[in-house]
User: What shape does this take?
Amino acid sequence: MESRRNPRAVVDPKVRQVGFFTSSSQPDSTPQPDPIAPASHPVSSISPSGNSLSPVMIPPPRHNSSDTFPLRAAAASAVSPSSFSYSSRRDFPDGSTTASPGRVSRGSFAKSSVPAASSLPGVGMDSMAAATSSSVPASRLTTVSIVNMPPGLTEKASGKQVQSDQMKNSKPLKEKTTKAERRALQEAQRAAKAAAKAEGGKAPLVTSGSVASTSKAAKPAKPSSQKNEGAVAAGPSEKDRKKDAPHPRMQYDDESRVVKAKRRAVVKQTEAKNRVELFRHLPQYEHGTQLPDLETKFFQLDPMHPAVYKVGLQYISGDISGGNARCIAMLQAFQEVVRDYSTPPEKTLNRDMTAKISSYVSFLIECRPLSVSMGNAIRFVKNRIAKLPITLAEYEAKAALQSDIERFINEKIIMADNVIVKHAVSKIRDGDVLLTYGAATAVEMVLLHAHELRKKFRVLVVDSRPKLEGQLLLRRLIKRGINCTYTHINAISYIMHEVTKVFLGASSVLSNGTVYSRVGTACVAMVASAFRVPVLVCCEAYKFHERVQLDSICSNELGDPNAISKVHGREDINYLDGLTNNANLQFLNLMYDATPSDYISMIITDYGMVPPTSVPVIVREYQKEHLLV
Amino acid sequence: MPDVQSTVLEFVNKLRKRKIEGSQATARYTVELLRSVISQQRVPHANQASALIDAVKAVGEQLVAANPVELAVGNVVRRVLHIIREENLSLTTAAMAGLDLMDASDDDELDNSKGIGYPAMSAAVVAAARSTLRPPSLQTLLEGTPESATVPYTSSSGADSESKSKSADKSSITRKLKHDVIEEVNQLIQEIAGCHEQIAEQAIEHIHQNEVILTLGSSRTVLEFLCAAKEKKRSFRVFVAEGAPRYQGHLLAKELVARGLPTTVITDSAVFAMISRVNMVIIGAHAVMANGGVIGPVGVNMAALAAQKHAVPFVVLAGSHKLCPLYPHNPEVLLNELRSPSELLDFGEFSDCLDFGVGSGSPLLQVVNPTFDYYYLDYRGGHNPSYMYRLIADYYSADDLVM
Assistant: This one.
């Protein structure tokens, strides 16, 4: 089979398994092996489509497939299916990387049509079309255009399969550098040109099309590795991409913008008198003043949907807290919004509903700054709205949206937690002493499940002021009969000796591996790593974010400063009474902090257990595919 | 001396019930008590030094046993013992010099020959005598007295000097020794009482304009240190970690605000988040161990680790009475104190769960391992933790380390 191996194509792509394994083995879905060059590519044996293992792949520094294939494409029009390299697949319209059966019919063409290993579907297909135009019938060419159709229709078919695959944790991940991408692109263009020349005037139209699509696709090629959904759907427009780029967050020391925002605001916030200088860029409001005011306005607010309003009030009062709970509450409110929605005359559903959701979101932000999980969920909802086909009737669109949101809640939050629990429990052994900080829902589920499995372990609950969430967790754990010890974060180095593993929750995981979580998590992780205790972070993948954060100061949330001066339940601690208005005395109630990735041994997500260095991989893969849920 | 015994018992009781808090107060009480013990101790004609040492040791053992965690007690007792030995030694050498050089050495001349003020003629002899009797000390190096480097180590044990002191004029030395010791102890009392001011004097050298300083716990040394810099018109910010569950940070913040320092109170959990914007961490210590480790208020370890991560200077302020000649072994457990769990958890709320076995403890103190980059400042200036052993050799005599 190695008879025709091209010496230049020998270099295998480097394959690294980072911990993603498909649970179901899928037979090689390539329809028929190409007689000429299938074996010339060792890749095929390990490529995701051909193997049950779908490892994370790092492309070789020199993209040999792209070097060789133009030649081959020019020489012989038939191309091996194996040449469908992972780098090109990444941007395939349906975003799935496993060759799902639903795609094969389409893929049978697509596969044979991407010889140039180009990074973008349009390029690959069109150039291939140019190259193979002699052998491929014209009808096939139209299939290409179908692939490039607005994804509203095509996605639905494949999306489910993608989802089912993914629920089995069979999400394969690949790595790719933009440099390789660019080179591939160049080669593709060259190939297309060469092919066009070789074909003479046979397919001038297609060639021009290919070039056009190449140039169009060239722009997103670079940022696509960072930007999430930019290159997902076939040929996203420039406008879409702009919208998808993460907005710079509102900086509250920018006075003109603050004034503008205030004019629009529903919630009347009174600014704290005694603001901490270092955190001018964050909103610092008096707490406890807005709630009565808002409650009285409950029946007067016309534009606000009551469900959203209710959720907002719950955010302010702190009745709903925790990333998952807040996100689910918001999504359920949005479901009600969708249910009660009717398109006003002269407006389209897509635009009007997006605007509505945006206004609701800004109301929720006024109540409490968004968490990353909520931001991702909102992005999902908006994307779903934008992608609704215009042809759909209103009731259909609403039903589709509602079920989409429902599915997001079920699969991204509830199912994800179950998977995390399954993974994390495997790390708990008899005799372990587990330390946890605060009250992370995922960690709590892990502990309870491990207890149900009759594992014998002890839990150290570490807590900190002012929220003392650990006490709630402690209560729940004790109710189930788990042996617990409770202490404050200051004493952590006293108890760290006996700890065997540290389980932490996270509000968000950023793409540099930083874990953004309840304040104090960084301290716990730091002390644990100083004592050489492994730190395991449980976090659902929908909370991952492509942003990068270096410290806990640039982006954070400030809680009620008065919670610090008053010690609940300790009347003897009253040193600071009456000093709260002193200009020299400030109280800083930080809500989150950023844990550097070096303190973290492992992040447990619904995609498996990964080191913090693999976060960007998940971010990229996940962000692409979560739009297709 | 029943009155001394009763005050000793009273003090022991106070220590046992933790009525006296803070190492400075404890150290002062201890040294004052020891002074009265010494002054009331009837000394025999022979072996008066060892009699004094025995008396001080007996009281010291009681005090240390009353609160072994309060290391300042043991430190002060050792300091006093060291003073007695030193005084005895200097008297002996002076007597020897007097015997050798002069046939008749009267009391007046001996009085003059105390401390550094030796008559010039006998200085060389005295130095030689001292160098044979005691290990080279930093003090002697600084004084510039000639000293042969090859002097073998001879312990300044009581027996060694006693035999020589016999030959000295007994009646004068008996009175003189006690007098000198009390004089020295008085100096020690002044030193302990004035340690805050002496440390605070150096503040201006360490704090610059617009500095951001993190501190935790409540220490008078830190308070005076910061205020001294403030008085010198330096403007800087102070972040105070509140130090749950005792909330000593609140106390410190209150005092700082009262003195007009811009203060921000943060939770203990926010220490890591804030440390990246902090220029210096300044804490007060409970004790400084012989290996350079610092025992400080709970939470110190966390702050020190964070400071190390961000390469922030970590300054420990401690008076010399906090310098402990012991090497910590498993100090988290052995040199620690657990306070009532009720400070952390409301028993009423959890009374139904307690039989499930909630154990909660709030260790009062914790230990920083000496691997960190922190510094030690006492009234003589700044020192690196690795230098602690040398200071200890200066302050304490090797015989007293184990009491």
Chain B touches chain A through 55 residues (CB under 8 Å). The longest strand of chain B covers residues 212-216.
